[in-house]
Amino acid sequence: MANVRNIKELSAYIRNTKSVVVKTYAETMLRVTLKAEGYAKRNATQNFTGRNNRKLSGRLLNSIYSGFDSFKAGQSLPRGFIGTRGIPYGRIHEEGGTIVPKKAQWLWIKQHGGKADNFRRLTPREFVQKMKSKDRRFKILGKGTPGKVAIFQALKGGDMVKLFALAKSATIPARPYLQPAVDQAVKDFGSIAKDHFRKNLKKVK
């Protein structure tokens, strides 16, 4: 049974396979899977933007990967897959859903743009720690939802900068980037398989 996990292992599997049909299938699966990964990264780049067209896809883009495995025990034909790893929010962006805090009372939604970007590395925990240390520049304003915000306000009449919006829940719209990539790659399967089959038949002759 084939048990390949990456391009190097699948390439070795292809070299060691004598069957024209199996070799063609494996070569096709390799190309189609890599195409699907490329399509998914393109979708993430195009679909995930913020205010002023600021790209939000960096971590998501870097989390997309592809791999290969066997269909199931007893079969030798490998299959490919794409997915995300290392980020907890990949699935909810794909399928959509509602996020609620698990332990905290509020969701802390980081704000972007303008002077808020000067605090882009500040975490909610650090914000609260600054409040507890009696740093009067860091405050939470407002009551109830919506309208509760965490702000930074420079003393002596300085600007008030909204750093976080606090909410009881947040609804994320579905912005699929994996499934459309798989669908597009599947459409390419037939023509790619035909090319590889012709090439492998010529080698047999």
Question: What is the average per-residue confidence, as pLDDT, rounded to a whole number?
Answer: 85
> How many beta-strand runs?
8
Order of strands across the widest beta sheet? 4-7-6-5
Please outline the major beta sheet.
4 strands, antiparallel
Strand content: 15-25%
Please write the string of helix (H) and strand (E) elements: HHHEEHEEHEEEEH
**Structural domains: how many:** 2
* Count of helical regions: 6
**CA gyration radius, whole angstroms:** 25 Å
SSE layout and pairings?
Elements: H1 7-16, H2 20-47, H3 58-63, E1 64-70, E2 78-84, H4 90-95, E3 97-99, E4 107-110, H5 124-132, E5 138-141, E6 149-153, E7 160-167, E8 170-172, H6 179-204
Antiparallel strand pairs: 1-2, 3-8, 4-7, 5-6, 6-7
Helix pairs in contact: 1-2, 2-6
What would your notes on this structure say?
With 205 residues, the chain is of the alpha+beta class. It folds into two domains: 7-96 and 173-204, no CATH class; 98-171, no CATH class. The chain is 41% helix and 20% strand. It contains six helices and eight strands. A four-stranded antiparallel β-sheet has the order 4-7-6-5, covered by helices on one side. A two-stranded antiparallel sheet has the order 1-2. A hairpin with a 7-residue loop joins β5 (138-141) and β6. The two termini are 28 Å apart. The mean pLDDT is 85.
